[in-house]
Task: structure prediction
Amino acid sequence: MQDIQSLFRIPSTPLQKIEDEFLFRHKINLYVKREDLNDPELSGNKLHKLKYNLLKAREDNHETLLTFGGAYSNHIYAVAAAGKRFGFNTIGIIRGEERLPLNPTLKFAKNCGMKIVYMNRSTYRNKTTDQVITQLKEKFERFYLIPEGGTNELALKGCAEIINSLDIHFDTICTACGTGGTIAGLISGLKKGQKAIGFAVLKGAEFLNKDIKKLLGLYNMNCLNNWEIKMDYHFGGYAKFTPELINFMNKFESHANIKVEPVYTTKMFFGIYDMINNHHLPEGSTIIALHTGGLQGLEGLKERKVLP
Ligand SMILES: Cc1ncc(COP(=O)(O)O)c(C=O)c1O
Result:
């Protein structure tokens, strides 16, 4: 069993500069913060969202972590891996009905020892209510609850540290947004003059503006206005793709030599290039794109024949 403190000793990941004729022409310095390389299993934003939660669970003598996610969730994958590595039992409450054989994400989670429990979609929508939590407590007794996507106050603290690890001057940091926890953490770590842009991967994600403000409110930072969420790069919604997006992904991967996936990071990179093309990012800017990982999901996409 490993010590949770090992997560605090991980060497800083590279800042990789992307050089191409398009960026040169628009006078943009684009760097990718390669958080996809920070850990093979708790990769990307997951490591930052989980580390203080794992510490807190240990401090409070919890033996079991319980969390929620979809069947292909990067978060479920990471919590299962963390449980195995740091000696917690894990319970994954999975949205929807059981489908056999298990997909690669759930197979991995189960092999890590995670107990997989399915929850019908209407109950799942109410998963944060007292009623559903009480039912879970009656069934599983004592557990440390990590919300869907790992987003809570302690996740923000971990994500804010990404900003401190950046040792160059930059104007804007970009990330893909699901629940908004990662960008809220980044915003809370920004210095004067810096800005964060989030790219919503869900359709109808207007809730993000309210949720992010609420999360920032936990640190009395809800009056900040150094951030914005772009709502036009979801490509039809969560885990929805178009040929244009997949074409962009393939081109980006080969010219930048960085592996991405289409659910989160490709939508962000597409959004960044589109904003540059439309002159919505000022000439001379230094932009950092956060690679939030999520590459474990590629196997499931290949299995569903969404990707070749
Ligand atoms: C790879 C990846 N990138 C970005 C995000 C979005 O993070 P958040 O839910 O904190 O907005 C997620 C989801 O957690 C993710 O798995």
